């Protein structure tokens, strides 16, 4: 196989774009887990919801940019409902019960989206501003995909700043380390959970809105993304921001370059890698403390 | 029977066990004393293999077991009880003892007849239950019996493996004086060829059962010898202050 | 710790009578449903053995059943092996694969165990999907059922096949009960309660987990091989992780760690699916809400709730409450 440098640049950009999309989804899930020890399997369903909302809003009213704003808000609102109705009550249950409740939620949300939007795939267009290609490092690359990479990096920067430099970030870190201790220090842990849960949901909605023009919007897109997201956070180590980044990058690179270099193996490769990580580092590469 | 040579363990910057060398003869009953955080439990964990030492060797019954996993050391005749009860909480007292006997008798991997109903397993369960005065509670679940009884059962599970060497980590902690006295009688009645290493805070009990005494402080052996000699040791007085004066 | 209580024996007898009675009375459509229930029941028995008694919540069991189905299809339809040998081969193959998965995952716990088994299940799915000999998305056809004409039974007849599947459920149940009551099964219960203590008692924990996972895999393989014979066709969808998820839902609905409960759960689930499916295309919504309701009720599924209720009644009548079997800790 001979490929020129441009080809590899293209693949690297593709890998990065996939990584950033996965990062947007994983980070909410992983921080929720780190803080609440709660695995929300319905996170993917929230992402699908975000995609539907964004596609509908874009189609009906203001176009892509309005959808990009509305989707995270709508999904966060859904998060508020879920938190009040289910999550809060399941806080003291074991992980098994939580996994099952959110599994039930996947089923329910899947059919809810089908009831509201039907079974046909919804198409969503790339905004006019981001149509066409941009020349970068010697290759032509779709502007929209560059936008996804940029958005991912921007969210990463904001999160790193909030978690690392602000008071609420310090509170979250304290909660991830040891929530009993954090409560003793006078942090309102319940409220912190609530806020983090809603932000996580909003990020899932954002990821859905961003993904809508890239993929076709279907009811089972949440199910399809769930496994990659879980792989990302388990490889990275549940509960850590660093883990979400590392996991997302590893997934993006393995998936993209695997398809090019070893097409026969590519689908098995990522699972084999996950198995390898779990065997050698049973709690992932960058496990959160506590 | 059980020997350590220059055992060292650090957790990062914390040096928990320093150069500990002990030698227990067959049938010896040794009590380990030492203040909270002295590294007694950590020493036990290294002996059983639950924690790997940073350096040093452990010899059990003439064989170097330093690199052996926990289960293999147990099969070589080493048994322990925990400072914090580590029981099968959802199961009955009989099942707790039965699992221990079953595994120790090598019936824990077999397919076929009910592993807990084997006559030899049941015999051991009844013997140990009688020893610990738990015979009337065999059908009760662990969560249904009193804390004192659970503490007894904790040792019972270790005894039901019929070990050559048994390590007991503060077996009487948190139980009333009555039960502690009963426990003392139990220890006295154990077979004389059983090698015994007990961590104990109760000085009276310690002196009543000990052939030899080891005192640990900041992970170091500061005394190793006969109980009579320990009584005179000023080091012990310093470490144990008040409680020592009463003894 | 698995034990047969009078309630469990009574429930089993009732299920057997209901199953056989229905097999003789039902129409073609009813027999299809009964067969579906039986095949699912075998799979959830296998899952309850590891999840309910060993705490190994597996999301690989759907894929394992799929491997059993493909194993049978490859051996019987592609390689031309006699059906009974193909059936045994499929069971053995699935057992070996499950043993390996169990051995590798033995060190993982909780959500990590779930994820690790999910990864292996997906690996099997991808492998079968992508490898041309397995027919890709189209799957494999031309599968025949076992030939029991020596017994005067034609398994192409749906009533006979349904009865055959019921007999296999009985066999699978007996196998699970046998394993769980053996030394190995008792060790597994001990490991479920405290891995640390079992290790300190001298048990090589990973081996117990791997062995039981392997045995459970054999039963899952049986379920898959029966599914292949039932529809006489296999496709990659059999290995989808949602099949594992549904199996887990069935175990939970029926009662985790009761072995009898999952049988009830399988019947309940399949009937619910068909009844709701007849009224609305959105039966997932109903299933999801039922699952949420069951989990939030904190009862251990349908049969677990029944056991708890009977236990309370008995405790109220007896002066000394010494309930031996409490759901969730069986
Ligand atoms: N896994 C660990 N990581 C870091 N430090 C540890 C760990 N385990 C124990 N330590 C530290 O080692 C020291 C000795 O602990 P250990 O439990 O052995 O004491 P001990 O003598 O049994 O005390 P006690 O009488 O309270 O039971 C303590 O300071 C403890 O904090
Ligand atoms: Mg201690």
UniProtKB/TrEMBL annotation, chain A:
GO terms for molecular function: transmembrane transporter activity. The chain crosses the membrane at residues 20-39, 46-63, 69-87, 99-117, 143-163, 192-215, 268-288. GO terms for cellular component: plasma membrane. Keywords: Amino-acid transport, Cell membrane, Membrane, Transmembrane, Transmembrane helix, Transport. Coiled coil: none annotated. It holds the Pfam family BPD_transp_2. InterPro entries: ABC_transp_permease (IPR001851), BCAA_transport_permease (IPR052157). GO terms for biological process: amino acid transport. It is a multi-pass membrane protein. It is found in: Cell membrane. Belongs to the binding-protein-dependent transport system permease family. LivHM subfamily. This is Branched-chain amino acid ABC transporter permease.
From TrEMBL, chain B:
Keywords: ATP-binding, Nucleotide-binding, Transport. Signal peptide: none annotated. One of its GO terms (molecular function) is ATP hydrolysis activity. Pfam families: ABC_tran. Residues 2-243 form the ABC transporter domain. CDD domains: ABC_Mj1267_LivG_branched (cd03219). SUPFAM superfamilies: P-loop containing nucleoside triphosphate hydrolases. One of its GO terms (cellular component) is plasma membrane. This is ABC transporter ATP-binding protein. It comes from Limimaricola cinnabarinus.
TrEMBL record, chain C:
This is Branched-chain amino acid ABC transporter permease. The keyword Nucleus does not apply. One of its GO terms (cellular component) is plasma membrane. One of its GO terms (molecular function) is branched-chain amino acid transmembrane transporter activity. InterPro entries: ABC_transp_permease, LivM-like. Keywords: Cell membrane, Membrane, Transmembrane, Transmembrane helix. The chain crosses the membrane at residues 35-53, 85-104, 111-129, 161-184, 205-227, 247-270, 282-303. Its main location: membrane. It is found in: Cell membrane.
């Amino acid at each position: 196989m001979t490929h020129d440098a441009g080809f590899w640049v293209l693949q690297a950009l593709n890998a990065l774009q996939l990584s950033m999309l996965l990062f947007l989804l994983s980070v909410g899930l992983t921080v929720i887990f780190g803080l609440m020890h709660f695995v929300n399997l319905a996170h993917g369903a929230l992402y699908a919801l975000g995609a539907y909302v964004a596609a509908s809003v874009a189609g009906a009213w203001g176009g892509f940019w309005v959808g990009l704003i509305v989707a995270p808000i709508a999904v966060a609102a859904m998060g508020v409902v879920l938190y009040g109705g289910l999550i809060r009550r399941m806080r003291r249950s074991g992980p098994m019960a939580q996994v099952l409740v959110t599994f039930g939620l996947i089923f329910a949300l899947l059919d809810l989206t089908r009831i509201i939007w039907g079974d046909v795939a919804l198409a969503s267009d790339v905004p006019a501003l981001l149509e066409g290609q941009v020349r970068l490092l010697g290759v032509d690359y779709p502007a929209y995909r560059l936008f996804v990479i940029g958005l991912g990096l921007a969210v990463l920067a904001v999160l790193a700043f909030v978690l690392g430099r602000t008071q609420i970030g310090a509170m979250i870190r304290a909660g991830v380390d040891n929530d009993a201790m954090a409560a003793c220090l006078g942090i309102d842990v319940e409220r912190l959970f609530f806020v983090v849960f809603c932000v996580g949901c909003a990020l899932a909605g954002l990821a859905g809105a961003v993904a809508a023009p890239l993929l076709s919007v279907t009811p089972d897109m949440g199910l399809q993304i769930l496994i990659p997201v879980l792989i990302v956070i388990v490889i990275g180590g549940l509960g850590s921001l660093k883990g979400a980044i590392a996991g997302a990058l590893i997934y993006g690179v393995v998936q993209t370059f695997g398809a090019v270099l070893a097409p026969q193996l590519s689908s098995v490769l990522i699972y084999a890698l996950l198995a390898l990580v779990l065997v050698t580092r049973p709690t992932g590469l960058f496990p959160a403390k506590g | 029977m059980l020997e350590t040579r220059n055992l060292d363990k650090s957790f990062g910057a914390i040096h928990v066990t320093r150069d500990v060398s002990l030698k227990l003869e067959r049938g010896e009953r040794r009590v380990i004393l030492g203040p909270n955080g002295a590294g007694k439990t950590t020493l036990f964990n290294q002996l059983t293999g639950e924690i790997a030492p940073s350096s040093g060797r452990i010899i059990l019954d003439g064989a170097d077991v330093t690199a052996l996993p926990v289960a293999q050391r147990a099969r070589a005749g080493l048994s322990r009880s925990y400072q914090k009860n580590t029981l099968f909480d959802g199961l009955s007292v009989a099942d707790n003892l039965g699992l221990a006997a079953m595994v120790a008798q090598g019936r824990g991997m077999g397919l076929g007849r009910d592993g807990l109903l084997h006559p030899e397993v049941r015999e051991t369960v009844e013997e140990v239950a009688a020893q610990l005065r738990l015979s009337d509670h065999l059908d009760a679940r662990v969560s249904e019996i009193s804390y004192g009884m659970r503490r007894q059962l904790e040792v019972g599970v270790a005894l039901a493996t019929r070990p050559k060497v048994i390590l007991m980590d503060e077996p009487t902690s948190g139980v009333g004086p009555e039960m502690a006295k009963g426990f003392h009688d139990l220890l006295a009645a154990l077979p004389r060829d059983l090698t015994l290493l007990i961590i104990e805070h109760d000085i009276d009990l310690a002196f009543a059962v000990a052939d030899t005494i080891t005192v640990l402080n900041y992970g170091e052996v500061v005394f190793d010898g006969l109980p009579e000699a320990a009584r005179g040791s000023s080091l012990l007085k310093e470490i144990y202050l008040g409680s020592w004066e009463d003894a | 710790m698995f034990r047969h209580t009078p309630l469990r024996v009574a429930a089993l007898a009732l299920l057997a009578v209901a199953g056989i009675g229905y097999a003789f009375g039902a129409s073609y459509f009813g027999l299809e449903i009964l067969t579906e229930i039986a095949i699912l029941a075998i799979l959830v028995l296998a899952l309850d053995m590891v999840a309910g008694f060993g705490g190994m919540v597996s999301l690989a069991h759907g894929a394992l059943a799929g491997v059993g189905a493909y194993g049978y299809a490859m051996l019987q339809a592609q390689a031309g092996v006699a059906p009974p040998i193909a059936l045994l081969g499929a069971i053995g193959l699935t057992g070996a694969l499950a043993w390996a998965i169990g051995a590798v995952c033995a060190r993982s716990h909780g959500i990590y165990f779930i994820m690790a088994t999910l990864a292996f299940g997906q690996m099997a799915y991808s492998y079968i999907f992508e490898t041309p000999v397995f027919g890709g998305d189209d799957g494999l056809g031309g599968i025949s059922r076992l030939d029991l004409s020596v017994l005067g039974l034609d398994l192409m007849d749906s009533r006979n096949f349904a009865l055959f599947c019921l007999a296999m459920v009985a066999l699978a149940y007996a196998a699970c009960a046998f394993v769980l009551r053996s030394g190995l099964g008792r060790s597994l219960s001990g490991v479920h309660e405290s891995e640390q203590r079992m290790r300190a008692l001298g048990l090589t924990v990973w081996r117990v987990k791997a062995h039981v996972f392997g045995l459970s895999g054999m039963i899952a393989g049986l379920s898959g091989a029966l599914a292949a014979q039932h529809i006489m066709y296999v496709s990659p969808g059999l290995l989808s992780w949602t099949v594992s998820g549904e199996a887990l839902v069935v175990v939970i609905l029926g009662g985790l760690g009761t072995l009898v409960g999952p049988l009830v759960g399988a019947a309940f689930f399949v009937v619910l699916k068909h009844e709701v499916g007849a009224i609305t295309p959105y039966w997932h919504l109903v299933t999801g809400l039922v699952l949420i309701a069951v989990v939030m009720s904190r009862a251990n599924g349908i049969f677990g709730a029944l056991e708890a209720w009977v236990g309370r009644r008995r405790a109220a009548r007896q002066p000394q409450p010494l309930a031996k079997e409490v759901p969730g800790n069986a």
